[in-house]
Specification:
Number of strands of chain B: 10
Helix content of chain A: 10-25%
Largest sheet of chain A: 6 strands, mixed
Strand content of chain B: 5-15%
Oligomer: heterodimer
Number of helices of chain A: 3
Largest interface: A-B, 31 and 33 residues
Largest sheet of chain B: 3 strands, antiparallel
Radius of gyration of chain B: 21 Å
Strand content of chain A: 25-35%
Radius of gyration of chain A: 15 Å
Order of helices and strands of chain A: EHEEHEEEEHE
Distance between the termini of chain B: 52 Å
Helix content of chain B: 40-55%
Structural class of chain B: alpha+beta
Order of helices and strands of chain B: EEEEEHHHHHEEHHHHHHEEEHHHH
Shape of chain A: globular
Number of helices of chain B: 15
Structural class of chain A: alpha/beta
């Protein structure tokens, strides 16, 4: 059975490494500040006792006041899971650092989020639309998109 | 005298039989060698995730059919499991057994397609594919008995399944379960020790365990690379913890290993179905769930081991009758990430086989 890594323990471990990065947690999820994502990602992947080497899914949700980018992580060796979330304020040009350098599996998924949700990933090697064509007006999964 | 050469860029697809759908690869060749690949997708993008936001939880089942249309049962299962987790719905035992039986039948049908097309891509045009289609056709007949449809099934509902299997389903299932191992033997006789298949697939398109994990690939490709990770074992859902089966893994992570892992998985699926037929209890097949499900506020992620890999649904609810957000973790899409790694440096002929061995379905890639 895949066990959910406690959000509290993950938050404590993150804050020890990157002070002030984790701001909130519950049993399964941990919320971090978007500016620390890259440092946190590196820590989650390499730290002993965390070992989240597999980025399972990367998605974004539009909560109107803010965008939430969600990382579903897995540790195949320890069979545990963790959900990392981060809130990005502002609708004009929301952006966050790309985690491609940590998990290569983020490549297409980050492009999909940019394409459909309009959250830009800085430092991504090929930040282009993936489903729609370049020049398409708007990002369809946003709540204020009118097709 | 040295002859001056220059790289050539070729568009493979979007209308090309080897791409198994509307998929385009921009490939740069130096003679026969692949220098660069750029996948271009989105030709089948229908905005399923956006459509889901304006449909009720039960209606979305039909949208999931049209993602991986080779394996609708698995899509249905992944989606209804996410809804059940979100809205906390208990599923009757009999329904769980029938779900597992149909999901495993679907896995065999999907792997049959993958194997048949692998041979097609190798140049054994149509004949081996027809052997595989013959078995798949029989499975589709079973699905027709269950729900009247063959491809877009919509058989599952949050809380169970649409209806119990009819009386004549069980003897028909027994016959297929008896015949399938023989058909798989026959297929293996044709392929597994075939000299041409071995030379064309061994050591081609390799992806090692470390790369596979780093690139987030899942399913037979991950297992062919030697990583023993199968959600049915790692995180057993439905009744998978009550049946015995093995997880076949490969060694080299090449095209041949992917093929052999799929063949062995078909055999394991037959084993699972046999045990399900023995164990299945009587009882209701659908829990009392309202037609307009109102899930409490919050989010849930549930995944199943589909034929292509981990198929997951991430649902966010705001308390209404439709999900606020419905994200699909599509294995076909994510398994395309290491395509450059697998293709660059290879030969033109191997490009087609390697791409085929990833086994993608464009309905799921583009959604």
């Amino acid at each position: 059975m895949t066990w959910a890594h406690s959000g509290e323990a993950a938050a404590a471990s993150i804050n020890e490494m990157v002070p002030g990065a984790a701001v909130e947690y519950n049993e399964t999820d941990v919320w971090i500040l978007p500016e620390h994502i890259l440092a946190v990602a590196r820590h989650l992947k390499s730290a002993e006792g965390l070992d989240f080497s597999y980025l399972n899914a990367l998605s974004a949700v539009d909560y109107v006041e803010y965008f939430e980018v969600v990382y579903h992580l897995l540790s195949l060796r320890r069979n545990s899971s963790l959900v990392v979330k981060t809130k990005i304020a502002g609708r004009d040009a929301p952006a966050i650092s790309s985690v491609c350098s940590v998990w290569k599996g983020a490549d297409l998924q980050e492009r999909e989020v940019w394409d459909l949700m309009g959250v830009r990933f800085e430092g991504h090697p090929n930040m282009k639309r993936v489903m729609l064509w370049e020049g398409f007006d708007g990002h369809p999964l946003r709540k204020d998109f009118l097709g | 005298m040295a002859i001056k050469t220059e790289p050539v860029t070729i568009n493979l697809g979007p209308q090309h039989p080897s791409t198994h759908g509307v998929f385009r690869l921009r490939v740069t060749f130096d003679g026969e060698v692949v220098l660069d690949v750029e996948p271009v997708l989105g030709y089948l993008h229908r905005g399923s995730e956006k459509l889901a936001e304006s449909r009720t939880y039960v209606q979305i089942v039909t949208l999931t059919d049209r993602m991986d249309y080779i394996a609708s049962m698995s899509n249905n299962l992944a989606y209804v499991r996410a809804v059940e987790k979100l809205a906390d719905i208990e599923v009757p035992e009999r329904a769980q057994y029938i779900r597992v039986i149909s999901a495993e039948l679907q896995r065999i049908a999907s792997h049959m397609m993958a194997t048949g097309f692998l041979l097609n891509d190798l140049g054994a045009f149509a004949t081996p594919l027809m052997y595989c289609f013959r078995e798949r056709e029989r499975i589709l007949d079973l699905f027709e008995m269950l729900c009247g449809a063959r491809i877009t099934l919509s058989y599952m509902r949050p809380g169970g399944i649409y209806q119990d299997a009819p009386e004549d389903f069980w003897p028909a299932l027994d016959r297929i379960v008896e015949d399938l191992p023989k058909s798989i033997d026959e297929l293996e006789d044709l392929i597994t020790n075939n000299e041409i298949v071995l030379t064309r697939t061994r050591g081609v398109g390799t992806l090692n365990a470390e790369q596979a994990v780093d690139y987030s690939v899942s399913g037979p490709i991950l297992r062919a690379a030697g990583v023993e990770w199968d959600l049915r074992k790692a995180d057993p859902y439905e009744i998978y913890d009550r049946v015995e089966f093995d997880v076949p893994i490969g060694v080299d992570g090449d095209n041949f290993d992917r093929y052999i892992v799929r063949v062995q998985e078909m055999r394991e699926s037959v084993r699972i179905i046999e045990q399900c037929i023995e164990q299945i209890p009587d009882g209701p097949v659908r829990a009392e769930a309202p037609f307009f499900i109102r899930a409490p506020e919050g989010d849930a992620y549930a995944a199943v081991e589909g034929p292509k890999g981990e198929l997951g649904f991430y649902l966010v609810s705001d308390g209404g009758i439709s999900p606020y957000r419905c994200k699909v973790r599509a294995p076909s899409f994510i398994n395309l990430t290491p395509l450059r790694e697998m293709l660059i440096g290879g030969k033109m002929g191997d490009l087609i086989t390697t791409f085929g061995s990833v086994d993608i379905v464009l309905g799921e890639v583009d959604r």
